[in-house]
UniProtKB/TrEMBL annotation:
Coiled coil: none annotated. It catalyses: 4 hydroquinone + O2 = 4 benzosemiquinone + 2 H2O. This is Laccase. Gene3D superfamilies: Cupredoxins - blue copper proteins. Lignin degradation and detoxification of lignin-derived products. Residues 1-25 form the signal peptide. It is found in: Secreted, Extracellular space, Apoplast. InterPro entries: Cu-oxidase-like_N, Cu-oxidase_2nd, Cu-oxidase_C, Cu-oxidase_fam, Cu_oxidase_Cu_BS, Cupredoxin, CuRO_1_LCC, CuRO_2_LCC. Pfam families: Cu-oxidase, Cu-oxidase_2, Cu-oxidase_3. Keywords: Apoplast, Copper, Glycoprotein, Lignin degradation, Metal-binding, Oxidoreductase, Repeat, Secreted, Signal. The keyword Signal applies.
Amino acid sequence: MKAIPWFVFLGYICLASLHFGCAEGATHYYDFVLKETNFTKLCSTKSILTVNDSFPGPEIRVHKGDTVFVNVHNQGNYGVTIHWHGVKQPRNPWSDGPENVTQCPIPAGTNFTQEINFSSEEGTLWWHAHSDWSRATVHGAIIIYPKRGTTYPYPKPYAEKTIVLASWYKADVMEVITDALTTGADPNISDAYTINGEPGDLYDCSNETTYRLAVKYGKTYLLRIINAILNEETFFGIADHNLTVVGTDGAYVKPVTVDYIVITPGQTMDVLVTANNAPSYYYIAGSPFADTVAPFDNTTTTAIFEYKGNYTPPSPIPFPVLPVYNDSDAAATFTNKIRALNSAKHPVNVPQNITRQIYMTVSANILPCPNNSCLGTSNGDRLSASLNNVSFDAPSMSILQAYYWNLSKDVYTTDFPEKPPTYFDFSGNVDNITLYTSLGTKVIMLDFNETVEIVFQGTNLLASENHPMHLHGFSFYLVGKNKGNFDNATDPLKYNLIDPPEVNTIGLPKSGWAAIRFYADNPGVWFMHCHLERHSSWGMDTVLIVKNGGTKATSIRPPPAYMPPCSKS
């Protein structure tokens, strides 16, 4: 079954398209059918979980302020949830999707209709499965056009193309993470990366299917780039062509022209590229950014930027110059250039007077195993991860449902530490610091409309690296970041409170810190986690619960008539 294509109910039916002709606040309906589908990559065929038989999955296209209902039919073999990454879902955490945080999995053989409420988002976001590692193949783009009657804050491009970066495993990806969690060892790395579902010329049996982006000379294209890769951040570029970044995470930024971008898992970027070089073939490439000693997939995915016309294809095809895999300085050079547009039509609203400050260490750790039976370390421990030395222990019941129905006693506690339980030289020598953490289902309680600052602090425990930290239910402002330990006396003096980027996912520098600010104006239960899947699986997660305000309009909406049952499936 195909996704229902753009039919819009407005008291009548009209066909929504790229033309901004329908009335404001339209409602769209889609059917997503989860099922196993055979795909052939890297010389072998395997069955993967897909939506509507496609990899990547179907696009959702809306205008700013629209509402979407997606009926998710699970015809797969196990329970799954779907998350609408970067959509704030005002007062409606019931459809946000993270498993056992806002809902339990949709059991195989059943369906669940989710309501996606778009508010201030504009640009590119994405949707993906939020159960174990099923998002490896269950994901797709969300395109949010400007509100009807308005347009982009930059010259309208000739055409738009979606670029989805993803991981490919020859093995069953769910078996990969299940085996890793059973043994306590590091999960196996992927076998390839893909661009729009294709690995590209540098992998076996892949030349004939390499994705080709056909362009006309002299025309400017908007590339909507999504990083759906499981465990690696990405350097991305096009040979002999500049990229102009104009948006990220569903918000506009000041245009900045670069040779390459750095994009973490979870992030999206809107990029303009002009086909202004000699008509030919040029490689598009994505290679890993992994400043760590932990294992990672050190391969490169390619596509071809192909001019239309008559010419002899070059040999070799020009290849973009990308930084080496561990070049943290190159990553920082790029991210430091990103600033919010902050125009009259697209202003920022950065919290100035902070009422709640949270200082949060982000660490890889270990947990003991019975009889030293695990394979994570030579001492028989299992690999783990934590925030403020609490490794998130996912409950078997939805935290949202427990909170709403006052059942918290048996599901979670409200004592998540708001500062590190032990202070040490986080970014320095940690030889004498224990690697062990402890499990807990601990949440942070926030009053409605508090002004919140969270400072993430990377540590050198076990294996330090850049962490893509993501918060559900909010966009936030990245007001500062740097290497080393955060200094609460001096570092805030250097914050950018004028035009910081408004995002939902940030790269926490290796052995460094990053400060974010937001208004806690969205009542609900919201997941916060590292978007490297192995770290999230190990417990580098927590939950923020924003209490209701004093009115119906500032309180969580009532739950829908049906929610998936909380039983393992």
